[in-house]
Design goal:
By secondary structure, the protein is mostly beta strands. It contains no helices and 11 strands. The protein is globular and about 40 Å long.
Length: about 140
């Protein structure tokens, strides 16, 4: 989880995760959470967190039960997460392409970007806009 929350004045917030090495188990989760979330689990597996997981392509929303969403992702992929506070929705991108459907609805509260891995040797780079994003499309 980042140290700082997404600024409350944001209408759109987007970040990308470059997967340098998926690690031994290939378990990667990308999403967002509330400040008080249990950081010992994957994004989406605990109350106050939401995540898209690379090993099964499922979405997780405050529980350990996933729902099918998109393609698997692993080493070499870039996954983007867009939180749209204008219509309170979230969508994901893979390698610059919008995955085409809403992942989560009814966002509220103070949220933090987060990435989780339960995979020895995994490594990631997070881009909050210091470099050009792979996704350049419309975020609506």
């Amino acid at each position: 989880r980042t140290n700082n929350p997404i600024p409350s004045q944001c209408k759109l917030f987007y970040f990308e995760v470059d997967i340098i090495d998926e690690g031994k188990n290939k378990w990667i989760g990308i999403g967002f959470c509330e400040k008080a979330v249990n950081l010992n689990g994957m994004p989406g597996c605990y109350d106050g967190s939401w995540g898209y997981h690379g090993d099964d392509g499922n979405l997780f929303y405050c529980s350990g039960n996933g729902n099918p969403y998109g393609p698997l992702f692993s080493t070499g992929d870039t996954i983007g997460c867009c939180l749209n506070f204008t219509n309170n929705t979230v969508f994901y991108t893979k390698n610059g392409i919008n995955l085409g459907s809403i992942a989560f609805r009814n966002l509220k509260g103070t949220l933090y970007p987060c990435v989780g891995s339960r995979s020895q040797g995994g490594s990631f780079e997070i881009n909050f806009g210091i470099r050009k994003f792979k996704f350049a499309g419309n975020a609506e």
